[in-house]
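Figure 6 in text form: structure in, sequence out.
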């Protein structure tokens, strides 16, 4: 999750901090700002300096998201921050050894957060897991993981100052949201006169993703069926894409038969162009059972212009390099093609804001934002919202193709029925 945090040498003074590159952003319920706080973490006496970052600070920051999204006024870190270690100190009463550090990062922030963000992080990483009951995690009966850690949850017995610290993070810079900006509709069409789209629905429970979507009782199977109905209502014809064809197109060295998923292709001819939509249902996790999904990611990156993913965010694991390695066929995103990507999962702002822009970067576009816009959720989303997100993102594209009308990014973001600090990144 935090593999983009920059390590600093152990020093006794604070070094000058520079925040991550600012991308244009718009959301109805949130904005971006630079946030800074001083943190502390307990370390063992014999810890060498070079292990402080990976073994303690980076591990501790895995717990950052839970309290931020559990708060009444929510926020999320971009995870491109800077850390400077301020020094060690020993508590005179307890004898425990701590490291203090300064953390600065770009956050997406609820509009109601204008001055201070409460930061809560565990002090001792070796025993916090055992000391945290299910009540110390949001949905702890199912999701007992650092991402959902919530020390102020009802029934949680953790003690501030003993088990965790609280810091007031200061919002040191606020960035204005964009106004009256529009997707580059004309640049969605490729050189073959097609707009190629991938809409992928990953199962809530992996085992349900191995069942055809018309038979599966999975939450997201219903979203697949609703989206299918929507596409047919938009005048698209449909055909099923067989597994062997998908394997050939993907160039995978790993057969998909063990968990092939289900793919239908929808097509519609408009004036001067053709829209082709690949609709995927199946397992979208980490590992070989997700190779059919990884092939769809390759399809979107190399032949498509729109990729909307609805499912679990997998804590940032759905990375292009990782997915290409899994299928034995590198994924090389077309840097010249304009792309719209949408990740309607949990905290995709933190996980998929940076790596996909980096994949698009070139000498002419070092930030990768000229030919890509990415829609993300800042906090945990809902399977109940995924049909709404998908349809309301696709409808403006279909309407432009058929009639030439153009909705702005502001109108599209404002149209979503539910709010998860959802915004468009890279918006120009």
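Output sequence:
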């Amino acid at each position: 999750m935090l593999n983009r945090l920059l390590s600093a040498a152990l020093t006794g003074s604070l070094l000058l901090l520079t925040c991550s590159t600012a991308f244009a952003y718009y959301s109805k319920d949130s904005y971006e700002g630079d946030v800074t706080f001083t943190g502390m973490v307990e370390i063992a006496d014999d810890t060498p300096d070079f292990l402080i970052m990976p073994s303690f600070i980076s591990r501790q920051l895995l717990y950052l998201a839970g309290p931020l999204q559990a708060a009444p006024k929510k926020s999320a870190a971009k995870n491109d921050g800077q850390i400077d270690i301020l020094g060690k100190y020993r508590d005179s009463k307890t004898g425990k050894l701590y490291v203090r550090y300064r953390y600065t990062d770009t956050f997406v922030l609820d509009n109601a957060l204008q001055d201070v963000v409460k930061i809560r992080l565990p002090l001792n990483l070796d025993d916090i897991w055992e000391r945290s009951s299910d009540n110390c995690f949001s949905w702890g009966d199912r999701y007992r993981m650092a991402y959902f850690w919530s020390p102020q949850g009802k029934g949680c017995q953790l003690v501030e100052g003993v088990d965790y610290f609280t810091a007031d993070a200061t919002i040191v810079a606020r960035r204005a949201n964009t106004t009256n900006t529009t997707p580059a509709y004309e640049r969605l069409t490729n050189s073959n006169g097609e707009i190629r789209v991938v809409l992928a629905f990953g199962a809530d429970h992996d085992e349900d993703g191995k069942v055809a979507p018309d038979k599966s009782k999975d939450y997201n199977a219903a979203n697949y069926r609703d989206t299918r109905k929507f596409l047919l209502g938009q005048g698209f014809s449909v055909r099923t894409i067989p597994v062997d064809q998908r394997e050939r197109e993907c160039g995978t060295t790993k057969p998909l038969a063990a968990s092939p998923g289900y793919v239908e292709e929808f097509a519609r001819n408009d004036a001067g162009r053709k829209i082709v939509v690949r609709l995927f249902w199946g397992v979208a996790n980490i590992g070989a059972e997700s190779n059919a999904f990884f092939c769809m990611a390759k399809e979107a990156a190399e032949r498509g212009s729109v990729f909307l993913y609805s499912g679990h965010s997998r804590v940032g694991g759905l990375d292009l390099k990782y997915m290409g390695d899994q299928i034995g066929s590198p994924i090389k995103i077309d840097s010249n093609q304009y792309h719209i990507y949408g990740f309607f999962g949990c905290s995709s702002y933190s996980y998929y804001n940076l790596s996909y822009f980096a994949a698009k970067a070139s000498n002419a576009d070092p930030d990768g934002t000229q030919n890509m816009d990415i829609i993300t959720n800042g906090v945990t989303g809902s399977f109940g919202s995924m049909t709404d997100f998908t349809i309301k993102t696709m409808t403006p594209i279909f309407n432009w193709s058929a009639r030439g009308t153009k909705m702005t990014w502001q109108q599209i973001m404002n149209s979503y029925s539910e709010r998860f600090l959802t915004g468009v990144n890279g918006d120009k």
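Caption detail: Residues 237 and 365 are 37 Å apart (CA to CA).
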